[in-house]
Structures are given as structure tokens and as C-alpha cells.
Design brief:
By secondary structure, the chain is mostly helical. It has one domain. The protein has two helices and no strands. 62% of the residues lie in helices and 0% in strands. Helix 1 runs antiparallel to helix 2. This is DUF4383 domain-containing protein. Keywords: Membrane, Transmembrane, Transmembrane helix.
Amino acid sequence: MLGVVAAVLFFIAFLINAAEIGTNDVFSSVNVMLLGLTALALHVAGVGTGWSRRR
């Protein structure tokens, strides 16, 4: 799930950068890209993969 979130954040960052949309400093394309990288790192680390049952 976090991998999909990262892909969406990367796409939003790309659109902001490609369209040269003027945003405030908090919602800049670099900050959105860094949020995507954080979500991708958490996905690779195994966070949010779901619960496993104990037998």
C-alpha cells in the first residue's frame, strides 16, 4: 500500500514541476517528492505490509 502512495506522490510532484504550478513553500514539488521517498522507504522496510496470524 505504501508503494502505491509513493507512486501517487511522485506523480503529483511531477505534475507540479512540469506544469510549473506556483505553490507555497510547504507544498512544493521537492517536499512532495521527499514524502514519496519516505513512503517508498517505509514500504521497502516492510512497514504496513499487514498483520500475520500466529498459529
